[in-house]
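Posting this for the archive.
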Amino acid sequence: MIVDIATYAGCLLLLLGALFSLVAAIGVVRLPDLFTRMHAASKAGAVGGGLVLLAVALLCFDVGVAMRAIIGVVFLLLTTPVSAHLLAKASYRTSGQYRVNMVVDELKSKSSQNHRA
């Protein structure tokens, strides 16, 4: 009984993770500029990968594998937003071609002050 429920829940998590990963891949291909592509890849990709790892943790029925999968989820959720932020900030500072699509540029005054110092 419990094994059947865990199997169905794991399959549901796996399907949801695959769906989020698909949405992230479509977003990377279809979105117009670097920043929105990076947003799609970091948000939906982290959620999709995390759900797949949770499905592995639920379906493996081994404590060691489940703990590694849960640690992987925590690592993924901690590092993906930080790396996306750093990549976006580096791209903003090094390349001016992506700034034409911005409606509001909140970093414009801050980046010009940083370059003068």
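The chain has four helices and no strands. The mean pLDDT is 85.
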